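### Sample
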Amino acid sequence: MSAVRTPAPRSVDDLEATFRDRFDAAPDGVWFAPGRVNIMGEHTDYNGGFVLPIALAEGTWVAARRRDDDTVRLHTDSPDVPDPSASVHLGELHDGESVGWASYAAGVGWAAAQRGFDVPGLDIAVTSNVPTGAGLSSSAALSCGTARAWVDLAGWSLTDTEVADLGRDAENHIAGAPTGLMDQLASVCGRSGHAMQIDTRSVEITQIPFDLSAHGLALLVIDSRAPHALVSGEYAERRRSCQEAAAALGVPALRDATVADLDGLPDLLLRRARHVITDSARVEQVAALLTDGSDPRMIGPLLNQSHLSMRDDFEITVPVTDLIAETAVRAGAYGARQTGGGFGGCVIALVDQDAAETVAEACVAAATAENFNEPASFVAVPSDGARRIS
């Protein structure tokens, strides 16, 4: 069996049939929102820095129908959800009070109400092929797919950034997930064949050419299957350290500092700040290489540098992702790094197209030899953002 297995897309016909079965009516439409993988720039977003994600071909499909009350009824076919059906009254949602997995969808309605919109209820059925727990923003795909559906059905006039912001507020305030805006912007604003250089301070998005196949290359995503979790204490420590470093340097955020400024900081704060500053700079370096027509293979060393920075300075890698990144490079990848918030999740590897299988097999062999879970790999294809499909 191949070690590279693309997640199968979901059937819109099946989703519509599920909707009719659950809600005794046809949906008003079906929307799709992608997951994302970040090429460069980890933990730079809440420090005002740069990030470089792509939207994936994998994502979440949302069938929705407008209601005449404030009820949101939801159903998912996800086997990872203990209770696949939920019902929420929007008027009963409160900041900081989660309603389980339904928070990512129903929370969008709460966020819209906070902005003064007249928010109708919805019936919603969802299906997804984004691997959960892998740090590929399956939650942002759900919140942004729902946001796009709600905007269309309610007739709100919103920019793409405002749509993404609804998704972020749902995650931050109702689901209790401490995300920045990168995941939602990537899900909403993705463009086929491009990566997005996002200035998280100005929220300016620059579409960067990222057509690897034209160069005989592929971006291999290797899911370590070590569940990605933004461990509350660890994540809070990283944010706190960054804030303390910025305060000690007398700058609003680490975006405003340079590595040369860090002399004299305590070792922990120095290392945390150094990762943020250098990873944000690597985003700009990668974007410049891709924009000026350089061979994309040249970004490989920057991927390797980023992984070492996350491992040694920010300390958010885990033994299995370290092993996978090292193995991928030994097996022929031009560069590899853990991607996402850390403490598990996926590694990305820049490989020749015809070497993807070899690299993936090497990573399986290395991980299982050390009694880790068997990794699962697929090729990431830069794709379009959230949209209505029927």
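The chain is about 40% helix and 20% strand. This sample (Galactokinase) is used throughout the tutorial notebook.
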